[in-house]
């Protein structure tokens, strides 16, 4: 059931990113909204669920994007690995940490895309990256809060955490 819900979220985010975001706001650049799900899966889901999410989302993005095949699958997989390793040292219940992780992944994705294309893409050097970073910082906190409520893995702030009776 959890994999089905994650698949539906991936498809909804993919449709939003490819159709509606460009239709509603054609003059603004957009960041990869599937990075939001990768951050959520990397921080709050099991290892197996996060890897399945990364592979499924990566294969779908590889099929519809102009990047070389395997770029998004490998980037999503290694972003999950990096998030899981950084979660050892970071306090994952901090509400601002996922927002800055998304902004960092947006920057890394632009850097790797620029490297894959051999420095040919001039959008990396223009205001495109700044606009994507600003959008990621402004919208990711809200979207990640929706993911936390939808997947019900983290209790809301106003609910007390249950204490075990040992």
Plain-language structure description:
By secondary structure, this protein is mostly helical. It has one domain (32-151). Helices cover 67% and strands 0% of the residues. It is built from 6 helices and no strands. It has helices at 2-24, 34-44, 47-64, 71-86, 97-116, 128-151. Helix 2 crosses helix 6 (128-151) and helix 4 (71-86) packs antiparallel against helix 5 (97-116). The longest helix has 24 residues, at 128-151. The protein starts with a helix and ends in a 15-residue tail after the last helix. Mean pLDDT is 80; it is low at 154-162.
In N-to-C order, the SSE pattern is: HHHHHH
- What level of helicity do the residues show? 55-70%
Count of separate DSSP helical elements? 6
Q: Determine the N-to-C terminus distance.
A: 31 Å
Q: pLDDT under 50 segments (min length 5)?
A: 154-162
How does the overall form come out from the CA principal axes? globular
Note the main sheet. Answer: none
According to DSSP, the number of beta strands is 0
Q: Over the alpha carbons, how many angstroms does the gyration radius reach? A: 16 Å
**Average pLDDT rating:** 80
Q: What structural class should be given to the helix and strand makeup? A: mainly alpha
Number of domains: 1
- Beta percentage is under 5%
Task: Give a brief outline of the structure.
The chain has 6 helices and no strands. The chain has 166 residues and is mainly alpha-helical. About 5% of the residues have low confidence.
């Amino acid at each position: 059931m959890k994999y089905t819900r994650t698949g539906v979220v991936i498809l909804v985010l993919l449709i939003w990113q490819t159709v509606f975001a460009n239709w509603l706001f054609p003059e603004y650049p957009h960041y990869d909204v599937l990075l939001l799900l990768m951050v959520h899966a990397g921080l709050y889901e099991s290892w197996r669920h996060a890897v399945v999410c990364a592979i499924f989302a990566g294969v779908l993005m590889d099929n519809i994007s102009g990047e070389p095949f395997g770029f998004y699958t490998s980037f999503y997989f290694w972003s999950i690995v990096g998030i899981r390793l950084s979660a050892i040292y970071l306090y994952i219940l901090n509400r601002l940490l996922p927002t800055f992780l998304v902004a960092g992944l947006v920057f890394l994705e632009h850097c790797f895309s620029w490297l894959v294309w051999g420095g040919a893409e001039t959008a990396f050097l223009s205001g495109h990256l700044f606009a994507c970073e600003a959008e990621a910082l402004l919208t990711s906190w809200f979207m990640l809060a929706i993911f936390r409520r939808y997947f019900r893995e983290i209790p809301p702030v106003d609910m007390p955490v249950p204490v075990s009776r040992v």
